[in-house]
Amino acid sequence: MTQPILLDCDPGLDDAVALLLAAGDPRVEIAAITTVAGNQTLAKVTDNARRLARLAGLDVPVAAGCERPLVRPPAWSTMHGDSGLGGVALEVEPVALDPRHAVDVIIGVVMSRPGEVTLVPIGPLTNIAMAVRKEPRIVENVREVVLMGGGYHSGNRTAVAEFNVLTDPEAAHIVFGEAWPLTMVGLDLTWQALATPDVMGRIGAVDTAAARLVVDMLGSYAEAYRSNHFASPPVHDPCAVARVIDPSVMTTRKAPLTVELCGTATLGMTVADFRDPDPQCTTQVAVDLDVERFWDLVVGALSQLSQPTKIN
Predict the structure, then answer these.
(1) Where is the Inosine/uridine-preferring nucleoside hydrolase domain (predicted)?
(2) Rounded to whole angstroms, how far apart are CA atoms 48 and 41?
(3) Domains, the chain, ordered by start
(4) pLDDT score, position 307
(5) Which residues pair with 310 in a beta bridge?
(6) Residues 275, 287: Cα–Cα separation, whole Å
(7) H or E segment to which residue 302 belongs
């Protein structure tokens, strides 16, 4: 059966790979794409999402959402360059922008298909938090939430805080605190998804426009990560999509989750309480990745996206 998802994203190099993975794998159906400011400004990430949707041959709503966090000033990532896609230019015509606000699209998609849709947020959680505040019934009508963000051991933006969560910790606190089934695919898992030279060779051998784009983007990503002492770049966001496609590609562990909002040195820390969680606990964290199977999913999806497109 095909699993409908709503992809809430801020493309972003690894967001782009996640979107192409979801578009190319027949086990998921992208019901809508919504964008949120994060890796770059809302205007830039929305333009990237619209062009990626065209490249992937998608005919789904693409709607722009929140241009800044709930409380704090915006802070862009330096890892993704001025455009959000590193030095890669995607020369395709963007799909039309849905005139609705992303928050209304999220609510509309979930409420029109009760119990069916999985939310896959892979950027800051501002849109999801706003949606649940505007229409609390989405909590009982969503199938589950599978997000990329956080980390229960360490962070990347600070010693303990991951970028997506730290960008809007108040929004993350809201999302983690709701009673919906939620899987946090955090840094503890995603740092296992390294785009090694062997992986890059496999993707390059696919030789489609989408695969060539991914090779170029991951090359840009690798340059950024080398300054952070990574020999190969970890590809975070596709891990959340992979969890929906094939839950057995990673192991998880139940734990109540919360986000630190007050600590001077620990703001944005995602705290996972592994002390004998209540059997009714609805949150879990991703722990171990089957790396080979994960990259099989990515390569297989890219093989399905063969629309000829010029990319410089």
Answers:
(1) 5-296
(2) 11
(3) 3-304 (3.90.245.10)
(4) 52
(5) none
(6) 16
(7) helix 291-304
Q: Calculate the alpha carbon distances from 147 to 23, 64, 79, 201, 237 in Å.
A: 17, 19, 20, 28, 8
The answer to whether the beta carbons of residues 205 and 303 sit under 8 Å apart is no
Its pTM stands at: 0.95
Instruction: Give the per-residue pLDDT at 91.
Output: 85
Structure tokens at 218: 């991951």
Contacts of 129 (CB under 8 A, 6+ apart): 70, 168, 170, 171, 172, 174, 175
Among this protein's residues, is 101 annotated catalytic? no
Per-residue pLDDT for 243 more than 90?
yes
CA-CA-CA-CA torsion sign (41, 86, 10, 307): positive
Map tokens 């993975």 to a residue.
Answer: 21
HSE-CB at 135 with a 13 A cutoff on CA atoms is 18
Mean pLDDT of the chain: 93
Task: Kindly tell me if the per-residue pLDDT of 14 is higher than 60.
Answer: yes
Number of C-beta neighbours around residue 275 at 10 A:
6
